[in-house]
Amino acid sequence: MRRRGTFSVIRMSHTAPYPARLLAQPRKATATMPTLLIFHEVDDVEHWLSSPKREEIFGPLGITVRTFIDPTKSQRVGLIAEVPDMETFQRIMESETAAEAMKFDGVRPETVLTLVEP
Question: pTM of this prediction?
Answer without folding.
Answer: 0.71
